[in-house]
Structures are given as structure tokens and as C-alpha cells.
Write a structure and sequence with these properties.
The chain contains 4 helices and 3 strands; from the N terminus they run αβααββα. It is of the alpha+beta class. The protein has 2 domains: about 1-65, Arc Repressor Mutant, subunit A, CATH 1.10.10.10; about 70-104. Strand 2 (about 50-55) and strand 3 form a beta hairpin. The chain is elongated.
Length: about 100
């Protein structure tokens, strides 16, 4: 159950922000901070997530997570992420267009 809670947390955060401190994981998954590393290793051994654990800084960097079924809440999160991405892309287009005028 706690590993599922971990996967939910990872799904909620931005893909670019999947470096999570052990404290945050412990609070979200309702486990002791000392048990976070073991839970992460279990999730990695089950091939649910891929990433690196930094024991010294107490941070995990997740590069990939196993795709899951999507509930309505998951779809709402994805819609929000796509809207954020659209805004970022519009800003990139404006930046490129602005710089291309200088070349002409």
C-alpha cells in the first residue's frame, strides 16, 4: 500500500521535479524516514520505478515509473500538465520568433 502511495506522489509531481527528499516521501507515505530507502529499493527491485538514491543528501531522483491505469483524478492531473506544457511552448515560440527577427 505504501508503494502505491509513493507512485501516486510521483505521478502528482512534475516530470522535471522528480527529485524528492526522504522527508516528503515519509510524510506522504506515512512511513518512518528511516524506512524510506528500503521502500524505494523495493519499488526499484519490482521495476516500478527507475532512478538513483542519494543516501547522503536523502534524496531520490526518479527517471522513470511504470505506467498505470488512469483514474479521473489522474486524467485531470494530466490535463493540467498539458496546459502548463502548452504555455511553456508558447513562450518558447515567442522567444524564437523574437530572436529570428534579429537575424533578418
Amino acid at each position: 500500500m505504501r508503494i502505491i502511495s509513493l507512485l501516486e506522489l510521483l505521478f502528482e509531481v512534475d516530470k522535471d521535479d522528480r527529485s524528492l527528499k526522504f522527508d516528503r516521501i515519509a510524510r506522504h507515505c506515512l512511513v518512518d524516514k528511516n524506512d524510506v530507502e528500503l521502500m524505494l529499493m523495493k519499488a526499484m527491485s519490482l521495476k516500478l520505478i527507475k532512478g538513483n538514491i542519494d543516501e547522503v543528501e536523502e534524496v531520490v531522483h526518479v527517471d522513470w515509473m511504470l505506467p498505470r491505469y488512469l483514474t479521473r483524478a489522474h486524467l485531470e492531473i494530466m490535463v493540467r500538465k498539458l496546459q502548463d506544457w502548452e504555455v511553456k511552448m508558447e513562450n518558447v515560440i515567442k522567444l524564437v520568433e523574437g530572436q529570428s527577427e534579429e537575424l533578418l
